[in-house]
């Protein structure tokens, strides 16, 4: 039991750092190789590789300006989430548990909103991404959503007395 105040913050630090590294690399990849995932967003929003059901195709967004704006918004959201999680990692390292927990919560919720609401719900269901063999990102989105949830849970577990005081 004596190790709990040290091991839980250590786990929160490591998990937050892993998530920060991951989303920073995703954002960097999207910025430096803009075209690769831009095509992904275009195809998902255009619904051009789905079953082409007339009852669903009215949802398709084929305007490339709107598609590009959505992609830039995704990259901006990923970048901000990465910066929040990098800052949270720094706070964990400094053992500032309360602000670290808060920033980790903000960062993980940002990712859960993007990957859960954005990619799984809107991309997967509204734009029927699940129907596409070529442009289906549901497995990757689910992994990030679940990893973010694990980090959120670990970061918000009670640390006992270690929360109230900063270890020397």
Radius of gyration: 19 Å
- Order of H and E elements: HHHHHH
The major sheet is characterized as: none
- Outline type: elongated
Any chance you could write out the topology, listing elements then pairs?
Elements (H helix, E strand, L loop, with lengths): L3 H29 L1 H13 L7 H4 L6 H30 L3 H30 L11 H18 L13
Helix pairs in contact: 1-2, 1-4, 1-5, 1-6, 2-4, 4-5, 5-6
Tell me what the structure shows.
The protein is mostly helical and 168 residues long. The protein is built from 6 helices and no strands. The chain has helices spanning 4-32, 34-46, 54-57, 64-93, 97-126, 138-155. The model has no long low-confidence stretch (mean pLDDT 92).
Outline:
With 168 residues, the protein is an all-alpha fold.
Features:
elongated, single chain, 168 residues, mainly alpha
């Amino acid at each position: 039991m004596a190790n709990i105040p040290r091991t839980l913050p250590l786990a929160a630090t490591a998990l937050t750092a892993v998530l920060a590294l991951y989303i920073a690399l995703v954002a960097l990849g999207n910025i430096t190789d803009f075209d690769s995932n831009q095509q992904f967003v275009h195809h998902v929003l255009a619904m051009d590789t789905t079953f082409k059901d007339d009852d669903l195709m009215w949802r398709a967004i084929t305007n490339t300006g709107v598609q590009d704006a959505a992609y830039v918004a995704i990259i901006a959201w990923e970048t901000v989430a990465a910066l929040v999680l990098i800052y949270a990692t720094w706070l964990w390292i400094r053992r500032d548990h309360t602000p670290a927990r808060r920033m980790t919560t903000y960062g993980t919720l940002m990712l859960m909103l993007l990957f859960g609401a954005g990619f799984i719900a809107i991309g997967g269901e509204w734009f029927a991404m699940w129907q596409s063999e070529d442009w289906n990102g549901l497995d990757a989105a689910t992994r990030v959503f679940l990893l973010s949830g694990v980090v959120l849970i670990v970061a918000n577990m009670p640390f006992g007395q270690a929360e109230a005081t900063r270890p020397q």
